[in-house]
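[Discussion] Sanity-checking designs against the backbone

I'm trying to build intuition for which residues belong where. Below is a C-alpha cell string of 658 positions. I'd appreciate it if someone posts a full sequence so I can compare it with mine line by line.
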C-alpha cells in the first residue's frame, strides 16, 4: 500500500520526508507498533502541498443538473504562495472531470491603469487514483514571488461523487422535486470541489448556485438573496461565508424546501410536509444557543438554522456552519432526541471555531462537542435528562471498546491507510466526553469553564492538533493549578486504551425503576401491560430495551410489542433498539416493518448495527443481502460503504489502490 505525505509524494517507504511536516505543527510524535512515528499535524488523508501553497478563498459557480446528477461549472481559488520556488500546486480531487485549469496572469503594473484580468491555461495532470484518497490534481505553475495565486478550474462532478446524494422526487417526502445534499466530512469535499481537502487549511467562500427555478438552494453560509432569510425561488442563489472554515464544512442542499422561523436568529428548513413538525420539535434552539453562550462565549456565526434532510441522510447531524444538517429521525414528536441539535450547535465552538487539524485529532471536535452537548442538555432540560443520556452513551462506549483493538481505543487514533469516514466508533465521542468530564471534576466547574472559554478564544478560527491542545492544557490547567492532575494521567486518556480508572462515570437514578420493571417482566412475575411505565421518557425506554437478556422467546416479544407497540414506534432510535431484539430473537412479526425501516432510513448509526445483527445467522445473512439489494440505491455513499463492509466483507476491501 502506498503511503501519502502532505507534499503530495506517494512513497513506498515507511516514512515521509521531514520537510513534509507543516511548518506550524508542533513536533511531538507518538510511536506506533507497526509504522514509523505519526507526524503530528501531517494530514495523511490529503495530497495537498500545504507548506508551499495554502488555499484561502473559494469562489464556486455551479449549476445543479438533477437529471444528469452532476454539478457543472467552475471554482476560483485564491492561494497564498508560501514558497516562491514551488512549481506544482497539488489539489485533492475524487472522480472530477476537469476541463480547464487557468491562472490569473500577472496584472499590469501601473498605479492608475485598470489592470485587465487575463487567464492563462496551465498544464495539469492527475496522479493515479487511491481508493481512499482519490486523485491528486497536479497543476504546473511558474515560480513566482507573488504572495497570492488565483486559479480557476472548470469541472464537472461524477454522478457517483462520494459526498453527494441525488434523490429522485419519489425518494423525497413531498414527491414533487428531486433533492440533492452533500455530506463532506471527513474527506468528501474533494468529490465536488477540487481544493486542498484538509482541515488544516481554512477558507472563506462565496457561491453562486444555479438550479431549476422552482427549487431552493441552501448552503453553510450567509444567504445573499434573502438577507439571511430564505431567498425567493428563482433558480439563482448567492452565498458568502465570511469566516474561514475548514473545507469539510462547505455544504449544499437543493430541494423543494420551505422555511419556518423558530426565533430571532434561528429557523428550520425542511421539505414542506415536514417543516411545521420540525419547527415545533426544535423550538428550543434559541434557548440552547443562549445557554451555550453563557458557558462557552459568544456565538460567532450570526444565524443558526437547521436543515431537516430526507431520511437517507447518513448522519444523525452534521455541523455545517450557520446551517446544521439534521436527520429527520431526530424528530420523535416529544423533543426526546433533540440532543442531536445540542450536539451540532456545540460544534459552533468545538469543531467550527476550533477545528481538528487532521482526522487523528477528531476527538478534539467530537469529544469536546459531546461534553458541551451534555452541558447544554443540562441547562435546558435538567440534570436528570443529562445523566440518562450520559449513561446510555457510556454503555455504547463499552460496547464499542469490547469490539475494538487496543490501538483503536485511544483518543488520538492512527488512521493511516484507512478511510477516516469508515473508521467510526464512539471512542472520540464518549471517551472524549469522559476525559473533559474528568478535567471538569478535578479542576472544578469555575476553573474549567474559564479554561474552555480561554481555549475557544485562543484558538478561534484555527485548526489544531492534539499536541497543541496538550500544550495549552499543560500551561493553562496542569501548571497553573499544580498538583491536581498529572501529565501521565492526561496521557493515559489520550493514548491509552480503555476507560482510565480515574474516570468520573455518570449514574442515573432514573434507571432504577426501569431495571426493576424489566426484572419483574423477565422473571414472568408481571405481564408487560401491567408494568408501571406511564411516566417513562424515551431514554428510559432505550435503557429498558438495551439491557434485555441475550435471548427472549417469541411469546415474550409479542407481550412487549402488544403492550408498547415497539414495531410501530414513531421514535426511530427506540425502533432501532427494538429491531436489534427482533433480529436477535428471530421475532417474525417484526420483520416486515424492519424491512421498511432499512429501506427508508439511511442513517448509518441506526442501520449498520441491524445489518450486523442479521449477518450473525445464515438465514439472517440471506435476508440482509436481499433487503440491502433493495435499500442500497437509496443510501448515501457513506452508509453504502459501511453496509458493503458488513454484508459483503470480502468484496469491499478498503486497503488496495484502484
Ligand atoms: N461531525 C459529526 C459527523 C461526522 C463525524 C461525519 C466524523 C464524518 C466523520 C456530527 O457532528 C456527529 O457527530 N453526528 C452524530 C450525531 C451526534 C448526536 C452524536 C452522528 O451522526 O451520529
Ligand atoms: Zn459531532
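Best answer:
Here's mine. Compare freely.
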Amino acid at each position: 500500500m502506498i503511503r501519502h505525505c502532505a507534499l503530495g509524494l506517494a512513497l513506498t517507504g515507511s516514512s515521509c520526508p521531514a520537510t513534509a511536516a507543516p511548518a506550524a505543527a508542533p513536533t511531538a510524535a507518538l510511536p506506533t507498533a507497526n509504522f514509523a512515528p505519526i507526524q503530528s499535524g501531517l494530514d495523511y488523508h490529503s495530497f495537498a502541498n500545504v507548506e508551499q501553497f495554502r488555499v484561502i478563498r473559494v469562489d464556486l459557480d455551479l449549476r445543479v443538473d438533477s437529471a444528469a446528477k452532476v454539478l457543472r461549472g467552475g471554482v476560483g481559488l485564491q492561494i497564498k504562495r508560501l514558497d516562491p520556488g514551488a512549481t506544482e500546486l497539488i489539489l485533492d480531487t475524487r472522480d472530477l472531470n476537469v476541463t480547464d485549469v487557468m491562472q490569473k496572469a500577472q496584472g499590469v503594473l501601473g498605479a492608475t491603469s485598470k489592470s485587465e484580468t487575463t487567464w492563462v491555461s496551465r498544464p495539469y495532470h492527475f496522479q493515479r487514483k487511491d481508493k481512499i484518497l482519490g486523485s491528486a490534481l497536479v497543476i504546473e505553475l511558474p515560480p513566482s514571488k507573488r504572495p497570492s495565486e488565483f486559479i480557476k478550474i472548470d469541472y464537472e462532478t461524477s454522478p457517483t461523487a462520494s459526498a453527494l446524494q441525488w434523490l429522485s422526487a419519489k425518494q423525497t417526502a413531498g414527491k414533487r422535486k428531486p433533492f440533492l445534499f452533500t455530506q463532506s466530512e471527513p474527506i468528501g469535499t474533494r468529490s465536488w470541489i477540487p481544493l486542498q481537502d484538509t482541515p488544516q487549511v481554512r477558507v472563506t467562500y462565496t457561491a453562486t448556485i444555479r438550479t431549476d427555478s422552482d427549487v431552493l438552494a441552501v448552503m453553510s453560509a450567509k444567504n445573499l438573496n434573502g438577507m439571511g432569510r430564505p431567498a425567493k425561488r428563482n433558480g439563482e442563489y448567492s452565498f458568502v461565508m465570511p469566516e474561514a472554515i475548514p473545507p469539510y464544512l462547505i455544504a449544499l442542499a437543493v430541494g423543494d424546501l420551505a422555511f419556518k422561523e423558530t426565533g430571532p436568529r434561528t429557523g428550520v428548513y425542511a421539505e414542506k410536509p415536514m417543516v411545521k413538525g420540525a419547527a415545533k420539535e426544535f423550538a428550543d434552539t434559541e434557548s440552547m444557543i443562549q445557554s451555550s453562550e453563557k458557558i462557552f462565549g459568544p456565538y460567532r456565526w450570526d444565524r443558526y438554522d437547521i436543515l431537516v434532510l430526507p431520511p437517507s441522510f447518513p448522519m444523525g447531524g452534521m455541523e455545517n456552519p450557520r446551517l446544521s444538517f439534521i436527520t429527520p429521525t431526530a424528530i420523535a414528536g416529544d423533543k426526546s432526541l433533540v440532543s442531536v441539535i445540542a450536539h451540532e450547535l456545540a460544534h459552533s465552538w468545538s469543531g467550527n471555531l476550533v477545528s481538528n487539524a487532521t482526522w487523528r485529532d477528531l476527538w478534539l471536535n467530537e469529544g469536546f462537542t459531546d461534553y458541551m452537548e451534555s452541558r447544554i442538555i443540562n441547562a435546558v432540560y435538567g440534570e436528570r435528562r443529562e445523566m440518562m443520556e450520559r449513561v446510555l452513551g457510556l454503555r455504547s462506549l463499552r460496547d464499542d471498546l469490547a469490539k475494538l483493538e487496543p490501538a483503536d481505543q485511544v483518543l488520538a487514533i492512527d488512521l493511516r491507510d484507512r478511510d477516516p469516514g469508515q473508521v467510526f466508533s464512539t471512542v472520540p465521542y464518549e471517551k472524549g466526553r469522559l476525559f473533559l468530564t474528568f478535567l471538569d471534576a478535578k479542576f472544578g466547574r469555575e476553573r474549567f469553564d474559564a479554561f474552555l472559554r480561554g481555549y475557544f478564544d485562543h484558538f478561534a478560527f484555527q485548526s489544531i492538533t492534539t499536541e497543541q491542545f496538550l500544550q495549552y492544557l499543560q500551561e493553562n490547567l496542569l501548571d497553573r493549578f499544580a498538583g491536581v492532575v498529572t501529565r501521565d494521567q492526561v496521557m493515559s486518556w489520550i493514548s491509552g486504551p480503555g476507560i482510565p480508572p480515574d474516570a468520573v462515570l455518570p449514574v442515573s437514578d432514573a434507571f432504577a425503576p426501569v431495571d426493576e420493571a424489566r426484572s419483574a417482566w423477565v422473571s414472568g412475575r408481571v405481564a408487560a401491560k401491567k408494568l408501571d411505565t406511564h411516566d417513562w421518557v424515551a431514554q428510559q425506554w432505550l435503557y429498558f430495551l438495551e439491557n434485555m437478556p441475550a435471548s427472549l422467546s417469541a411469546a415474550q416479544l409479542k407481550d412487549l410489542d402488544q403492550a408498547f407497540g415497539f414495531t410501530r414506534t414513531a421514535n426511530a432510535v427506540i425502533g432501532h433498539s427494538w429491531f436489534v431484539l427482533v433480529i436477535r430473537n428471530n421475532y417474525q412479526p417484526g420483520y416486515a416493518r424492519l424491512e421498511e425501516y432499512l429501506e427508508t432510513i439511511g442513517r448509518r448509526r441506526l442501520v449498520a448495527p441491524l445489518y450486523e445483527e442479521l449477518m450473525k445467522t445464515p438465514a439472517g445473512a440471506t435476508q440482509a443481502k436481499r433487503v440491502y439489494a433493495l435499500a442500497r440505491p437509496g443510501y448515501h455513499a457513506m452508509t453504502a460503504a459501511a453496509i458493503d463492509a458488513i454484508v459483503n466483507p470480502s468484496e469491499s476491501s478498503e486497503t488496495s489502490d484502484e
